[in-house]
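Z., the sequence and structure:
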Amino acid sequence: MKADHVQSHSMSFTDKLTHLYNAQGFVRASEHMLAVLNEPVSCAMLLAIEVGNLKVVERALGREPVDLMLTRTADILRGVFRGAVIGRLGVDRFAVLTPANPSKCTELMAALNKDIDAANLADPNTYLSVSGKYCLFDPRSSYSIESWINPKHRFKKTRSRSLEH
């Protein structure tokens, strides 16, 4: 009985399709990561991604290709951001939080672009159109992770860089 409770509790923080954290799980795991970051790590990279054209694909081809696009995106994020907190926050929105400095951010974004290009070459029928922004997040900031992942925030409070694919 206890194992069922633990499984159902952990499932409440997980997106069923991608097996990533859902929004609530992402916030909890991110807060935990920030709490245990060592003092030498002064910042973390926070990335917000949207997968485009899902409605168009669904109307034209049905739900299955959309699910494939979302699971491919999740797989790419897992591959590039190993050890990071990764979540699916909404139908087409993903977020990543990982300890990083500015040069590491550039390196990670280059790897993300490379993997998206490779995925699109491998399966052009479900072309991933991905856009997003990332910023360096100061763990000592007065902003909560929840306020940063809110779509209305739009990274206005900091310098951010865009990803268009």
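The CA atoms of residues 76 and 89 lie 16 Å apart. The helical segments are 2-11, 23-36, 54-61, 63-80, 102-122, 145-149.

Let me know what you think.
H.
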